[in-house]
Amino acid sequence: MNGAPKLVTAVAIAAAVVVCPGVATAAPPPGACGNPAPASPAVTELPWAQKTLDARSVHEHATGAGVVVAVVDSGVDADHPQLAGKVLRGQDFFLVGDLPGGFDCVSHGTGVASIIAARPVSGIGFAGLAPDATILPVRVSESDSTDGAAEGIDPEALARGIWFAADHGAEVINLSVAGELDNPFVRDAIRHAVDLDVVVVAAVGNGQEGTAPGPVTYPAGYDGVIGVGAVDMTGTRLDSSQIGPQVDVVAPGGGVLCAARAGGHQYRDGTSFAAPFVSATAALVRSAWPGMSAREVTQRILATTTPAPGDKAAYGTGMVNPYRALTDGLVSAAPAALPAVRHPVPDAEQVRVSAWWAESVSDARLFAVLTVAVAVLGAGAAVVLIRGRRSRWQPRRAVVPPAAPARDELPEEMFLVPPPPADR
Fold first, then answer.
1. Tell me: the pLDDT tens digits for 103-126?
2. Which of these is catalytic: 59, 80, 108, 265?
3. Active-site residue (options: 74, 272, 279, 287)
């Protein structure tokens, strides 16, 4: 992040895929949106993130029913077909006046909310990971970026939004914002939410350059906050996903599908859209175990991740795994100490018998070797005795053949073929 540190939305490049036109019509208050983003086309196929996280199997165990998730962002389009009836009134802390948070001019907050709680619709593959959760929209900005530029958010507005969410029934708060500024108002608001037993999830940001850890980003860097990095469909960290101690876990954030304001869907990149997968997982866990504390929910999410290919500063504990978060059996007790090694006392009688057998086997082997040696020597002696008697014990000498007489002349010529006629 260049220039003076400031809180920014953790956003990245978005691109829509045309399948069929959107059907919803957003209704922001008059004059609230100066240049609202148009509707996007709908996308029918099942997205890779929902396939990877096995959303259909997850929903056999929990759907997020009864859990309120606050989306502190650019607002949420409450008119979207997959969000209609699921979005509370909320509050707008960006514009002056008593305005609801249930509208969105730029689609950022709508996309985040849909990844959490979009309901299934016939003919559409996309749905939220916790489709029965309820969204509390808290509007703190009108910021969305399609070129990676930093867009500022008023930290006081962000802090007021977090306080509002914590005080109005949110059990999970999603913060798809990140920046290098450790603001005291935001820090106090996070502490307030944690004290009220709220699970707070935040994007780690998209300002990474190279592979060396950069400055700690906030609010992901605060105690009690789950910091979320982004990976693509291969499980590899996005180059822009920031590295550092604030990264607790990673989630799909490259080319993920989400809803857009005024209807339809968009493909988005960045940690902004990875964080809601973790917020949805927290909603699923809180739905399955309503009595579980926020600290226990966090521990379960981090303990059940899928191991990642890189180091902890880039991937945290690994890829969020909602199925394991719902089904793994965990224990809270510390591992039991291993008992001291006790060497058994040998039985004296058994030791005596074993020694007797060992000695007997050794003696038997020696006897067998000696027996074979004696047999070989005896056989050799017998052969010598028999041959000696036959020869009357006279030494045997080799018969030398007579020497051939020396030739003074060469032998006659030998022909292998008949001689010439003159010689016949």
1. 999 999 999 999 999 999 999 999
2. 108
3. 272
Rounded Cα distance between 325 and 334, Å, is 20
- Is position 272 annotated as part of the catalytic site? yes
> What is the total count of domains within the chain?
2
- H or E element, residue 212: none
d(CA 78, CA 20): 21
* Domain around 76: 7-327
Label the pairing between strands 199-203 and 172-175.
Answer: parallel
Q: Is 141 found in the same domain as 248?
A: yes
Q: The domain that contains 271 carries what CATH number?
A: 3.40.50.200
pLDDT in tens, 12-43: 323 332 233 334 445 788 888 888 888 899 99
pLDDT reported for residue 408 = 60
* pLDDT tens digits for range 260-269: 999 999 999 9
SS3 call for 95: coil
pTM: 0.74
From the list 73, 104, 132, 269, the catalytic residue is 73
> Does a structural domain hold residue 415?
no
